[in-house]
Write a structure and sequence with these properties.
By secondary structure, this protein is an all-alpha fold. The chain is built from 8 helices and 2 strands; from the N terminus they run H-H-H-H-E-E-H-H-H-H. It has a single domain, classed as Butyryl-CoA Dehydrogenase, subunit A, domain 3, CATH 1.20.140.160.
Length: about 200
């Protein structure tokens, strides 16, 4: 490897390292299967490195990286739908995670609800809540207006809240007579959840 290639690799790794955890959480939450998530992450890094010369500045690297990941996740789901081999979420749930500590929310319930959102809403929610991106950063990744991102988050969160309450209300009433859980009932543009290991 010549000096130019060595320098390119060092620069790439210096930018990739600080965001690698956020990338992994983003992909895993969207595909739900750890092996598939690792494959997509590896492909994302490979493509990003091969086309690294196209990155205009260090500041845009994170948008460049997550745009590639977003595209690969969409391709992954299209292939799954095309061949009709979507498996039940119970076969692919990532073992390390069962609840979001800040809310006590069961990740299985959350994943069921996330899968019922459209692609843009689901991606925006995961970028904001799981990967910890700001609204402006999501705007860069999704290539939409800031108002569109805000509306997408508001709609997505409202749908999630309704779906999660629907899924949790019936069992709770049968067991204890409890009222539906008020999950995700927060302002339309809330603070991101604290970053943790997914």
């Amino acid at each position: 490897m010549n000096q130019a290639d060595t320098d390119k690799q060092k620069q790439f790794l210096s930018l990739y390292g600080p965001v690698s955890g956020r990338l992994s959480r983003f992909i895993l939450t969207l595909v739900w299967n750890p092996e598939d998530a690792r494959d997509i992450a590896a492909d994302t890094v490979l493509i990003a490195f091969q086309k690294f010369d196209k990155v205009r500045s260090d500041e845009v690297f994170i948008y460049y990286l997550f745009s590639i990941a977003s595209r690969l996740v969409k391709q992954f789901h299209r292939k799954k739908r095309l061949f009709g081999i979507f498996a039940s979420y119970t076969k692919h749930q990532p073992e390390p995670v069962s609840h979001i500590p800040e809310t006590g929310l069961d990740m299985e319930v959350l994943h069921r609800a996330l899968n019922k959102l459209n692609d843009k809403e689901r991606e925006a929610i995961v970028l904001f809540e799981i990967a910890g991106f700001s609204l402006a950063e999501i705007q860069e990744i999704q290539k939409d207006s800031l108002s569109a991102v805000k509306s997408r988050l508001a709609r997505g969160r409202a749908k999630l809240s309704n779906m999660i309450n629907d899924q949790t209300a019936a069992p709770a009433k049968r067991k204890t007579g409890a009222q539906p859980l008020q999950l995700l009932m927060v302002p339309a543009v809330p603070e991101p959840l604290k970053q943790g290991n997914l």
